[in-house]
Design brief:
The complex is a heterotetramer, with 2 copies of chain A (about 325 residues) and 2 copies of chain B (about 375 residues). Chain A has 12 helices and 14 strands. With about 325 residues, chain A is α/β, with parallel strands linked by helices. In chain A, the strands form 3 sheets. In chain A, strands 3-2-4-5-7-6-12 form a 7-stranded mixed β-sheet, sandwiched between helices. In chain A, strands 9-11-10-13-14 form a 5-stranded mixed β-sheet, with helices on both faces. In chain A, strands 1-8 form a two-stranded antiparallel ribbon. The radius of gyration of chain A is 20 Å and the shape is globular. Chain B is built from 15 helices and 7 strands. In chain B, strands 1-2-3-7-6 form a 5-stranded parallel β-sheet, sandwiched between helices. In chain B, α10 links the parallel β6 and β7. In chain B, α2 packs antiparallel against α12, α2 runs parallel beside α13 and α3 packs parallel to α10. Chain B starts with a helix and ends with a helix. The chains are: A alpha/beta (about 325), B alpha/beta (about 375). Chains in contact: A-B, A-C, A-D, B-C, B-D, C-D. The structure holds thiamine diphosphate (2 copies) and magnesium ion (MG) (2 copies). One magnesium ion binds next to β4 of chain B.
């Protein structure tokens, strides 16, 4: 246990610190994207990096996402470790071909001789009152693309640790940053930052016996809140924060579901074809005889992300989660 | 016989398929942006046009100020201002016939309003009630487009379709200097030129893409120099000279209408305000630069010309300002009313008919809303 | 019952016929893409259309997929019905932003005033010995994108009927053509083609009592073969051909699974984050108490599509399907 | 005072930020493709270079024929031939130093081979055993790239990275005329120019993208005219004149190496064979066109020049042909051996370490293979 006083920091600050520390530790780490240099990024995550490391290490690129990711591929081919910022989720789509046809496949294509250690930071999700195209949850696209790691932090400490791990990875990592948690604060000691652990472990954020909420990123705090509210209904909910969608931590998730016998997957991304289908299917494959009820999903509706004034009706909230928990066939128990 | 003479015998012909199809010279822009105000040509300009442009610029400036103020009052989620760029916005709308189409970028609400769309409707997206607030077919204005440059191929396709149908329709598409870096810009211009589609591309080079200055965006002599690479004319114009922009765009529209194909117009202007109300421009540019551009203000330039020609007096100036105030007041008042939004709209327009899956979700939300309602009534 | 003699036709021929009939019936139907004109497409699906309808109705475009789909959007805005060909699955990725940010959302964005009746034909899947990028199964990306219909035929008759229905639809349809079935033949009367039925109904291709194989597109014939082979093991398998992934026919699928109590989802697309997760999850949600075993998945491995010489190890085949059927906890029955 | 005189007082200055940064004139290509063979300049060419080019062209032609033959024998899944384009393929490889990088398109196996990659390895992709058959770092040759134009930004990024590291490395990237229509072409050239990256873009304009002729691909005066729009020089060269291509590419490489930034080179050539062995070119072009180009054959042109200068005699020609035969025979023989492939390779290189999910699938395949093996042994 550390004796240094913990100071509150935001997730955005922890991310900045992770980039700074990674750049200081390894001269091959380069940050690039739209407005990441002088401005420090529209969310200020790259604030100060151009000043400290120079514009060659933290570069304002032309406005072209395929070009950003495509040149990052070339830089990685030459031994650099590019950290690319896509300004918003939906603005990563122009880079989709580079991501799917090159970033995810170059190692495999070259029988391991040409790995691509590229980190692709994508602010994602809603809840910030953004106009069209600024609130997409695009993780389903990345999960369906072999060769990518897909991770997303839900806490300030994880933001630091996972980003360091992503940059340290010799494989490409899509690093999804929950926009609405950028300003979430937590006690965290920036002088003794969380150690970098390998990507791929989920964590139980709250233990409980009645049912498991399986979630990640922006929905973790919502699930924690739902778990608190559930106590009034007599349910003791466990909350698993996946942290990594690829690789997927079957072990932690299934251990929890086997204990509780019931599970709800919660995420913002659309329901149909979203991450929840995969998660529910694999949990069911592995825990069928432990399940008292089908694994349910509480997720975004299957509609284009709505305008700010309607987003509260779209986002999975506490009530909708508790409704789903209520449908987990509790009669079976009695 | 010398080697040279011997060689005469087999001097290769040009590669058979090599025929430069286009003379590049007329496609290249002039070295300096085209100007009318302050030149001899100004005297020949139609006084009525000058007065109309002036009134629209003054109103446009006031509109920008009002919309920015609305963000402070929480009535708009965000507003990207075109203060300083009014000449481009207004001219783009005025050069089009009713049957033509306008393809605005996310910044171009002023052009949309100048084309006749109700300003409250035009601001719907930025207010946060819905993605597009107007029926695109009513004024032939495509939805405001946020993913940069992606509206350009739409303009090309629409203009091409109109031509195929035998309709006399021109499309004018607007994009920023930053947007020219996107692949969609390239593909749109190429399709337009190959199809000889009646499209005009207006690039407002306002010096910045958020914080990124033009020098980090391109190394080209000008953005208008991109045109020759597609085989279309490139024109460079002073974007703060409303008369010049109106003339150059008008020429391009007429050229397109006459079957001459597309034109790329670069209007050199400046974004006086920050990127949006949420941006802090002091992080990336100094006041001095902004000040120089204030001296090249589009309203100032036109006002001086009008005064010099005796085409306007103080009363006329006051009248224009008064009109702008009335316009702004009406907007302010109407924007102060809370929009009536139906959450069930989430599902109404995803498909012509909701899928069974969507109907389930619709039922779920309806039940939730009813429960909420009941809770409120109790 | 028709009295006209049925003639064998290939799926490619049925598709050509569907395009031709649609173009003849409606002058607003325009075909466009790379090599679709003079050449008739690399799979010859557009053969003869430019000649019959002129190059303005069947157009060789410049080589730029985002441009093709982006101009098609504009053409649809003006009242045309573009039918776009993407030459191969992986070459649709450059058009991803246009697809997700515009094609799928324009109707919703404009509150229904600007529908986009665009059909996007994508030859997909493997089994043809194609080199890299020519055998992707990208349906998971499209399924996760609200606003799109996603359909795929498995028979010659459906190829005709579904393509006519897709072109007739007022919404955008991603029309996935199983490459390796292009040359599959079937008795089919081109003079009395299958009526156009609305998109969204699955069909039971083979009735059976032991378990349900849920599948679509290129895997349908494989499942039919597996069902035949399964008889030797004493299993009587039902095969459901989804035909439409969006909308999804829960009714037909769940009726089958409730009858059989066991199900395996079969597709070429990768397993993780693939269509099978969604299908297994929604079937389980709806049929939990009817299930004797978890819904299993037999699908492509989670690897980039392999080179021709290795593809047989990757593709879900009869043996792998029967193995999965064998794992459906038959002990529970006795 | 006249109106004109009044106006003198407020004659607007140019928009303050307007500075044409580059003189466009030197960036524009000449009207005619550059040629050496058959001109006076040919006499000044290095005889050794001419002989080397000749030997390589002859070998390249034979390589193309051999690879096409291998498709007929089922030893290659598919082969896109560069018959008629050998001058570009060979020159692209020869102008590079060992430390430089080559970025080939899917068609450019000949350039890859000319750079030193074992031809059997270079053909691995097209044979169907694996996606890339060679270690890119051994000869500094990027994997053959199938998605068109997507390798161009890679070349830019690599060259940029090398420059940042202080390494004296140039990247040469190859693309077809069709590929220039893709957004990635545009974005790559723009990044290269803004970063002044040491890259040379070689467009082989061979007249077709599969069946689509250049006229449906672009309306530009030439593809080299695209360069000015990025602020880099555009050069037009006769792509069947090996000496001219070698010189123009060599100049561009030296320019890049000296810190002068990127160059776009358009080589006008012709695809003599069909798109690939699977294509039927008679569906979209006539024999007559092909025949005209046969008269402008790169080998023929060089052979005549060599003969005219007395730099080669019949023995020399025979020797070159003999060398090509030996080369082809070795290739034929080695391609006749079945490659040894391990199905478990499917999982070996997806990640540095397989994920738990992949390990499960790996175990499944291993079990299946073992069962197969046992079945076979029984
Ligand atoms: C494809 C895409 N990438 C990124 C963004 C985020 N973004 C919004 S405006 C902007 C700058 C645009 O600059 P410019 O094209 O010059 O237009 P201006 O804002 O100056 O009108 C950026 C990067 C976007 N909207 N779309
Ligand atoms: C992004 C993408 N779209 C489509 C294709 C399919 N395709 C392969 S080669 C080719 C034509 C290429 O023409 P060009 O660029 O002129 O090169 P060439 O074949 O003449 O060498 C096409 C359309 C592809 N490989 N990549
Ligand atoms: Mg700008
Ligand atoms: Mg070509």
């Amino acid at each position: 246990m550390t004796t240094v006083a913990l100071k509150p920091a935001t997730m955005a600050q922890a991310l900045t610190r992770a980039l700074r520390d990674a750049m200081a530790a390894d001269p091959s780490v380069h940050v690039m994207g739209e407005d990441v240099g002088t401005l420090g990024g529209v969310f200020r995550v790259t604030d100060g990096l151009a000043k400290e490391f120079g514009e060659d290490r933290c570069t304002d690129t032309p406005l072209a996402e395929a070009g950003i990711l495509g040149t990052a591929v070339g830089m990685a081919m030459y031994g650099l470790r590019p950290v690319v910022e896509m300004q918003f989720d939906a603005f990563a789509y122009p880079a989709f071909e580079q991501l799917v046809s090159h970033v995810s496949r170059m190692r495999n294509r070259t029988r391991g001789t040409m790995p691509l250690p590229v980190t692709i930071r994508v602010p994602y999700g809603g809840g910030i009152g953004g106009v069209e195209h600024h609130s997409d949850s695009s993780e389903a696209y990345y999960m369906a693309t072999p060769g990518l790691h897909v991770v997303t932090p839900a806490t300030v400490a994880d933001a630091y640790g996972l980003l360091r791990a992503a940059i340290a990875s010799d494989d490409p990592v899509v690093f999804l940053e929950p926009k609405r948690l950028y300003w979430s604060k937590d006690s965290w000691n920036p002088e003794e930052p969380t150690p970098v652990e390998p990507i791929g472990r989920a964590v139980v954020r709250r233990s409980g016996r009645s049912a498991t909420l399986i979630t990640y990123g922006p929905s973790v705090p919502v699930c924690m809140e739902a778990a608190e509210a559930a106590r009034a209904e007599g349910w003791d909910l466990e909350v698993v924060d996946l942290r990594s969608l690829v690789p997927f931590d079957d072990e932690t998730v299934c251990a929890s579901v086997r204990r509780t016998g019931r599970a709800v997957v919660v995420h913002e991304s659309g329901t149909f074809g979203g991450p929840g289908g995969e998660i529910a299917a694999r949990v069911t494959e592995r825990c069928f005889h432990y399940l008292e009820a089908p694994v349910l999903r509480v997720a975004g509706f299957d509609v284009p992300y709505p305008p700010p004034m309607l987003e509260r009706h779209h986002l999975p909230g506490v009530d909708r989660i508790l409704d789903a928990v209520g449908r987990l066939q509790w009669e079976a128990e009695s | 016989m010398t080697v040279m003479e011997q060689r005469g015998a087999y001097r290769p012909t040009p590669p058979p398929a090599w025929q430069p199809r286009t003379d590049p010279a007329p496609l290249l822009p002039d070295a300096e942006p085209y100007r009318v105000l302050g030149t001899e040509a100004a005297a020949k300009a139609d006084p009525e046009l000058l007065r109309t442009l002036y009134a629209q610029l003054v109103r446009g400036r006031r509109y920008n100020a009002q919309a920015t103020a609305l963000t402070k009052q929480g009535r708009l989620a965000v507003y990207p201002s075109t203060t300083g760029q009014e000449a481009c916005e207004v001219a783009a709308a005025l050069v089009l016939e009713e049957r033509d189409w306008l393809f605005p970028s996310y910044r171009d609400t002023l052009a949309v309003v100048a084309r006749g769309v109700d300003p409250v409707d035009a601001l719907t997206l930025l207010r946060g009630d819905w993605h597009t607030g107007y029926d695109p077919y009513e004024h032939r204005v495509a939805p405001l487009c946020t993913p940069l440059a992606t509206q350009l191929p739409h303009a090309v396709g629409l203009a091409h379709a109109a031509r195929l149908k035998g309709d006399d329709v021109v499309a004018l598409a607007m994009v920023g200097d930053g947007g020219t870096s996107e692949g969609d810009f390239h593909e749109a211009l190429n399709f337009a030129a190959v199809w000889q589609a009646p499209v005009v591309f207006l690039v407002q080079n306002n010096g910045f893409a958020i914080s990124v200055p033009l020098a980090k965006q391109t190394a080209a002599p000008s953005l208008a120099h991109k045109a020759v690479g597609y085989g279309m004319p490139g024109r460079l114009v002073d974007g703060n000279d409303a008369v010049a922009v109106h003339e150059v765009l008008g020429d391009a529209v007429r050229h397109a209408r006459a079957g001459g194909g597309p034109t790329l117009v670069e209007a050199v202007t400046y974004r006086i305000d920050a990127h949006t109300n949420a941006d802090d421009a002091t992080r990336y540019r100094g006041d001095a630069e902004v000040e120089t551009w204030r001296e090249h203000d589009p309203i100032l330039l036109l006002e001086r010309e009008l005064t010099a020609h005796g085409l306007i007096d103080d009363d006329g100036i006051q009248a224009a300002r008064q009109d702008a105030e009335v316009f702004a007041a009406a907007l302010r008042e109407r924007m102060n009313q809370d929009p009536a939004l139906d959450p069930m709209d989430l599902f109404a327009h995803v498909y012509a008919e909701p899928t069974p899956q969507l109907r389930d979700q619709q039922a779920q939300l309806r039940a939730e809303l009813e429960a909420e309602q009941e809770g409120a009534h109790r």
